[in-house]
C-alpha cells in the first residue's frame, strides 16, 4: 500500500508545473479517488506558493478520469494584500481530470465571532465498529488507506433521511498536512447510496469545501464526518458534509453534487 506521505513526497517539479504518480490502491473504479485529486491540487499550490496564507476555501470540478502518471499545472488568478486565488488543473492522458480554484486568506482582526456547527453526540471511535466488512468485499481500493467506523446512522434515519455519520482517519499516522485533511474529507460514499435498491455506480461532479478550523497539536487523527443527502432526483444528488475533530471542533464544511446511476 502506498502511504499518503510517500505519494505526496514523490510529487516532482517540472517545466510546466508538477508531476505525480497515483498507484492503483488510491483508485476509485477507473479513476483517482476524488479526495486525493483535490489533495494533489492543494499540495501543488502550496509548493508553488510556499508563502501563501492559510487555505480558506476550495472548489473542485471532477471533469474526467485520471490515474497513473499525472501532470499538475498551477497559476495565480489574483493576489492581494491578504488573499490569494489560485487555479489548479490535474491532467491525465485524456486531458483535464480535475479543475480546482483555491482561496487562501490571511487572518484579520475582527470585532465579530460566531460559530454554530454543533457536533452530534456519539460514542468515541474506540467504541465503534468498523464500517467496512472484514473481507472488504465491495469496498473501493482507496478505502483501505483509511480507518472507518460507524458512529451513527449508516442507513436512512427514522425520518427517511439518507445520512452517514462516521469516524474516519488516515492509516498513515504521519498524514497531518493541510492536503491530508482534504484527502480525508471526501472519504465516505455518497449518502444517497443508503437508498439504493441494489449496488450502482456513482461519480462526484463537484465538491466545494471551506476550512473553518485546524487540528491541534495533541490531535489523535480521528475525524467525525456527517454526510447528508439533501435532494436526489434526475440521476443526481446534492449533499452537505461536516467534519469535526475528536473534541467536537469543526474543521471542514463542504457540499457535493454527485451523479448516481441507479
What is the total number of structural domains? Answer: 1
Q: Helical percent range?
A: 10-25%
How many angstroms does the end-to-end distance come to?
Answer: 31 Å
Physical arrangement of strands within the biggest beta sheet: 1-2-6-7-8-5-11-14-13-12-10-9
Task: Summarize the helix and strand pattern as letters.
Answer: HEEEEHEEEEEEHEEEE
By CATH reckoning, the class would read Mainly Beta
Q: What is the SS-derived class?
A: mainly beta
The CATH H-level superfamily is: Acyl-CoA thioesterase, double hotdog domain
The beta-strand count equals 14
Number of helices: 3
- Please identify, by name, the CATH architecture: Beta Barrel
Shape estimate? globular
Radius of gyration: 18 Å
Mean pLDDT: 92
The share of residues in extended strands comes to 35-45%
Domain Acyl-CoA thioesterase-like N-terminal HotDog: 23-105
Protein name: Thioesterase family protein
Organism: Caulobacter vibrioides
InterPro entries: ACOT8-like_C (IPR049450), Acyl-CoA_hotdog (IPR042171), HotDog_dom_sf (IPR029069), Sec_Metab_Biosynth-Assoc (IPR052389), TesB_ACOT8-like_N (IPR049449)
Descriptive terms for the model:
Porin; HotDog_dom_sf; Sec_Metab_Biosynth-Assoc; Acyl-CoA_hotdog; 14 strands; Thioesterase family protein; mainly beta; 262 residues; 12-stranded antiparallel β-sheet
Would you kindly provide a written description of the structure presented here, covering whatever features stand out?
With 262 residues, the protein is mainly β. The protein has helices at residues 4-9, 34-48, 178-185, and strands at 12-13, 18-22, 27-28, 31-32, 55-62, 68-79, 83-92, 95-105, 146-150, 163-170, 202-211, 223-233, 236-245, 250-260. The strands form 2 sheets. It has a 12-stranded antiparallel β-sheet with strand order 1-2-6-7-8-5-11-14-13-12-10-9. A two-stranded antiparallel sheet has the order 3-4. The chain is globular. 37% of the residues are buried. The model has no long low-confidence stretch (mean pLDDT 92).
Amino acid at each position: 500500500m502506498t502511504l499518503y506521505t510517500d505519494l505526496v513526497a514523490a510529487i516532482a517539479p517540472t517545466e510546466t508545473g508538477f508531476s505525480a504518480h497515483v498507484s492503483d490502491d488510491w483508485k476509485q473504479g477507473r479513476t483517482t479517488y476524488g479526495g486525493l485529486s483535490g489533495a494533489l491540487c492543494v499540495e501543488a499550490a502550496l509548493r508553488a506558493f510556499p508563502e501563501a496564507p492559510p487555505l480558506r476555501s476550495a472548489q473542485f470540478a471532477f471533469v474526467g478520469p485520471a490515474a497513473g502518471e499525472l501532470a499538475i499545472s498551477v497559476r495565480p488568478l489574483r493576489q492581494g494584500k491578504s488573499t490569494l486565488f489560485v487555479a489548479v488543473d490535474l491532467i491525465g492522458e485524456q486531458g483535464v481530470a480535475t479543475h480546482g480554484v483555491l482561496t487562501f486568506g490571511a487572518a484579520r482582526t475582527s470585532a465579530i465571532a460566531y460559530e454554530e456547527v454543533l457536533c452530534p453526540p456519539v460514542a468515541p471511535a474506540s467504541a465503534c465498529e468498523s464500517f467496512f466488512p472484514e473481507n472488504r468485499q465491495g469496498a473501493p481500493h482507496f478505502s483501505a488507506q483509511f480507518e472507518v467506523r460507524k458512529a451513527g446512522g449508516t442507513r436512512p434515519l427514522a425520518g427517511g433521511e439518507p445520512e452517514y455519520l462516521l469516524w474516519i482517519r488516515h492509516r498513515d499516522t504521519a498524514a497531518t498536512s493541510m492536503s491530508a485533511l482534504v484527502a480525508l474529507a471526501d472519504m465516505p460514499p455518497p449518502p444517497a447510496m443508503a437508498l439504493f435498491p441494489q449496488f450502482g455506480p456513482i461519480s462526484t461532479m463537484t465538491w466545494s469545501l471551506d476550512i473553518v478550523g485546524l487540528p491541534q497539536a495533541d490531535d489523535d487523527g480521528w475525524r467525525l464526518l456527517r454526510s447528508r443527502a439533501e435532494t436526489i432526483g434526475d440521476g443526481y444528488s446534492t449533499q452537505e458534509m461536516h467534519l469535526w475533530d475528536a473534541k467536537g471542533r469543526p474543521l471542514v464544511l463542504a457540499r457535493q453534487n454527485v451523479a448516481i446511476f441507479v
